[in-house]
């Protein structure tokens, strides 16, 4: 019990002192996950908007596929990216395996279906509410999506934060394509796994504390955005 207490004390000391290795790992984690979130939003939000307002044969099947992809096993995604970026793979010539870029690609594949599916639900509900009004104003096509996205900007920011939270907590895919290389591809989740296996509990706990603080911060921001959206709705 005393060893655990000492480990927690050292861990809080590392966080408080902004240990250089700790900060490097945290910064890389945030950089990779934020980049994946931005790319996923660029892909997922238009896809979600298109699915929300379009009616075409096979739409139901496509919705099922997008929703199913929300549960993609991370290790399978990591394996797919690994096979494509390995020397024998079709994109091996790019030399991206075991780089932050490969980790961003893996996280993007994981969270894009989440952002697409959640944004589709948000925008479809809003489209149902505004459909008659938009038709009366002769708003069609891309202008409908643009109008809905702007009106649903706060809920969509919440969707983006949900994607970021999923990305920053990912370990299976990033450890396969990143390799957990010190000072290059070591992020919080992979470092926690490594330090725990090595028996370095203080560093693992310090990283766990930071990861929990990030999760709390994301949830606080989501609640703040929801409160702001509610105020705008009743304004």
Automatic annotation (TrEMBL):
One of its GO terms (biological process) is transmembrane transport. GO terms for cellular component: plasma membrane. It is found in: Cell membrane. Pfam families: BPD_transp_1 (PF00528). Residues 26-222 form the ABC transmembrane type-1 domain. InterPro entries: ABC_perm_TupB-like, MetI-like, MetI-like_sf. PROSITE patterns: ABC_TM1. The chain crosses the membrane at residues 32-53, 60-85, 97-118, 156-181, 201-222. Keywords: Membrane, Transmembrane, Transmembrane helix, Transport. Gene3D superfamilies: MetI-like (1.10.3720.10). It is a multi-pass membrane protein. Belongs to the binding-protein-dependent transport system permease family. PANTHER family: PERMEASE COMPONENT OF TUNGSTATE ABC TRANSPORTER. This is ABC transporter permease subunit. It comes from Oricola cellulosilytica.
